Amino acid sequence: MQHLQKTRGWGIDPLPYAIDVRTFKPADAPRCFRPIPFAFRFLRTPLHNGLLPTLFLSIVSALFWSRRRVHPLSAWYTLKDLPNARDRILVSYEGPMRRRLIRIALILLLFPPLLSAVAGWLAGPAFLHPIRRELTPDLVREADASFAFSRATREDFDVRASDGVLLHGWKVRPKDPNGNWVLLFHGQADNRVGVIGQSEFLLPAGYSVVMMDARGHGASGGPIATYGWLERNDTRAIIDALLSSEHVKAGLAPPASSSASSTSLTSSFHIFALGESMGAGIVLQSAAADPRIEAVVAEAPFASLREASYDYAGLQKFPWLGKTLFAPGAWTLLYRNGKIAGFPVAEVSPQNAVAARAFPVLLICDEKDVVLPCRHSEMIYAAARGPKQLWVVPGAFHTAAYGFAPEEFRRRVLSFFAANSRVAP
Asked: Domain boundary residue among 95, 113, 145?
């Protein structure tokens, strides 16, 4: 066997000791090499563990080895003057431990915030332009089958928002209406069909429902979704159009203004709202801006866009990381969205909305929700000034409360609307 040769260009001094490969275990290696098997296992599953940790470990590894100018595979040698040389390897180690620890500590402190800031900047536009779920003929047929089962009838309901955006939706009436209306609001990247499940127990109870595609969703216009900033004005336009059409159906002249409709018709015309996820945040902000909404049911709402951005920065698993090490990702996401959208994104806050006006609210929290965890509902509950309830649904995932506890969901929602109407239906 040839004499041990240095690897050209790497400059390794083959000193400290040799290891028998037949009995080698990770615990026998020098301390600085023990994390390597874990790192390789981690990098083999990047999709499971998340993109940011993978990029972070890759850059740390590259910088670590480039500073030492030592390739990790160049530390393997065979020895001539040792017994059983071909079964032995030599692991070399160089450099002062203190300097290495300082370098690694600096990398660990500086690179996660930097990477998260870049990721937040790149991901920002996606939050303003969610995937649009089109209203296909198949979805319309499924909705019509559901309405027919409830013996309800639907009609197209188009509303022009205050900024000119055309919103499309449906008005659905039960066979025996009780005179009250419920505005249903779907979640992000969904459309009006996403709240069909809620209509299936509201219609038999006598409630008429309005199901609209939010701006930037479904068949509605609008270049971006603003999570309540513009949608609260859309809700006001929807209520104006609803009350105007009901005046006409009743043989009355259309109201001259929102305040006129509020005083003339709402004494016997009760309006409630129910939303989930993004829709829950929209209805809470809409109720604060329009007192004609008498009570709100909100499942899995976000406390504020800033608070929700911490969950996304923490990969929806570690919100504490989103508030600490990965916080720059949340900051750059909000900053860029504000520049693109032209409004203060950080001020979009259902938590502030419930503190601005006292109105009855039923908050529904899904116990195993990782998208918008229960702390969002708890923050809103703590800030609410009006009558409030908080229901934590055991075992439920994001917006899945109705699927996990359908009977209890129906009972709570119907009794909440009945109890909080100004005049008993």
From this structure: 95
